[in-house]
Amino acid sequence: MNRMRMFLIAMSGLFLTIGMITVFLFQTQLKEKETDIPTFYQDVVEIENPASFRALVNKNYRLPADYEPSDLVLLDVPLYNKDKNNEANYLRKEAARALKNLFEAAYNEKGYELIARSGYRSYDTQVMLYDRYVKEDGVEAADTYSARPGHSEHQTGLTIDITSDSVHGGLTETFGETDEGKWVAENAHRFGFIIRYPENRVDETGYQYEPWHLRYVGTEAATSIYNDQLILEDYVLNVMKQMSVLWD
Ligand SMILES: [Zn+2]
């Protein structure tokens, strides 16, 4: 009887220990998961592949200050600001061609008319914009809606803000609720574009939902990102890393 009691005590002690270890490990895992999201603008890496279609530019990866794409071309789609000297009306050649195909498909398949509003933005323009926002609102507020110089995807020449008459040419969240916006979200990948800042990943991208901000990454990457509901960070830092082609 005494032995039986001893055995039971030993067993419950063992189970208690296993239970505690499990809880401890689970908590550690949770903590590790929380720290997955980097602190924005800390330990910033200057990227080595600025001309890659899959270049990762965000609040922790920046473009070299002197990076200027060599193949910018004037967009051949309806423009919000029709000034041909405005750099915002330019994109890299392949992205410009893909955008034309996207806009034509929207019109041919659905009768939707899309408008290009803001494409390429040089480092110097971003310096000017960011400085102005900081003067007006302070660094903390400016960081929530404007990228620091070198950290704007628009400097890649692969990014375009688009809109439509149904939102009066605005860059607004309601674009995502329009027929045009919904069609773009479901079809952009066919032409190599992704919605770069989706609604459900704000903490990781560091940007509010921007249904108007499209990034060209090529059809293969865009389709994978669309099908698996990824963000570019997932694709470059996980998928591409596994394929060992991080800096292609
Ligand atoms: Zn944008």
TrEMBL record:
Note the Pfam families from the entry: VanY
Query: Where in the numbering of this chain does the D-alanyl-D-alanine carboxypeptidase-like core domain appear?
Result: 89-218
Q: Which InterPro entries match?
A: DD-CPase-like, VanY-like_core_dom, VanY/YodJ_core_dom, Zn_M74/Hedgehog-like
Q: Would you indicate the residue range of the signal peptide?
A: none
By its UniProt entry, which SUPFAM superfamilies does this protein fall under?
A: Hedgehog/DD-peptidase (SSF55166)
Protein name according to UniProt: D-alanyl-D-alanine carboxypeptidase-like core domain-containing protein
| Organism annotation | Turicibacter faecis
Please name the taxonomic classification of the source: Bacteria, Bacillati, Bacillota, Erysipelotrichia, Erysipelotrichales
